[in-house]
Structures are given as structure tokens and as C-alpha cells.
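Section 3.1: Structural characterization of target chains.
Under the original work plan, the team committed to producing a structural model for every single-chain target entering the pipeline before any wet-lab resources were allocated. The record below documents one such target. The sequence was received from the expression subgroup and is listed exactly as submitted; it comprises 186 residues.
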Amino acid sequence: MGSIVGITGTPGTGKKSVAPLVAKELAVKCVSLNEFALSQGLVAQSENEGEVDAGALRLQLRQHLRAPAVVYGHLLPYSLSRAQVSMVAVLRCEPGVLKERLVNRGYAERKVIDNVEAELIGLLSADAYDAFGKGKTFEVDTTYTSPDEAAERIGGTVARRRAPKSRIDWTTNYDSGRKLSSLLSY
């Protein structure tokens, strides 16, 4: 494998658990975009949260990142180019389950709601498809899938070099105002 396999998704979908398993399966290094940004001094603190300049991250990755590798993080669609990646897996999680995960992690109320809303509408998925194209991008539902199972699915798709065409749409699960209000309140 001479290129980069990307793994992205909303916080809480399993990137940190799945990516090292995929890297092990493919026998390549594993690179966390968050850790890379920290190591390069690209994280600015703003109201108790780190913010990364995606343009600066993109530049540093061009200079320092060498393929083959599995690269993961929610900033993937904004920091790597279509030419740099061979395949990109977008991890997805049912928004109600994702909400529980983020609350259990101690995320602030606003951050929980923002991330649940982003997952509901498929924001990172749409951005990944826009950045990398339909031929390289595919989704993996991690709601009730173990990290090992998700890694196997990703590894199999990478080996086939063909992205599945099916897309996940959570909005049909929240087809009433009551359900949506319950999901997007804390």
C-alpha cells in the first residue's frame, strides 16, 4: 500500500479505537491528527478548548507525513487532499447513542448538542465525500459494532479498493418534532 487510508467521523464514533487496529491489519503506521497538531504547536487554546488551524495542519502534513499510513481525526476532510488518500472511512453512530457516549465522556452541554446535530445531518460524512470523492469514501456504522469488527470492515474495503455506495441517513429516525427535540436537548 503506497498511500494513506483516512478515518474520520464525529467525536465519539470510535476513531481512536478503530484506527490503530486498521493500521495493525495493514501493517502501517498510525497517525492521530490531534496528536500531530499538538506536536507541531498548531493547537491554540480558546475558552478551555483547543482550536487547530486546518490550513497550517495541511501544510505541516504535506511536509512531514509519509505514506503508507492510517491517518485519523475529525479534521481529516480539511487537512488532507484527495490525491494523498487511497480510501477514507467515515465512522458513523446513531445520534442518540452518540449523545450518551459524549455525556459519559463529560463533554460540555453545548459540545454534546453540536456534535449530535453534526452526526444527525451527516456533516463530516458530507465533507469527506466532498473532499475525497465517492470512489474513495465510505461509511461504517459503529453504533453497535466493536472496534475489531469495524477495523475488519475497513480493512476489507481497502483491500477491495472499492468504496460501498450505501450511505447512512439518521434523519429518518427523528421524523417528529418530539423525537428531534429530545435528541437535541440536554
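The mean pLDDT is 91.
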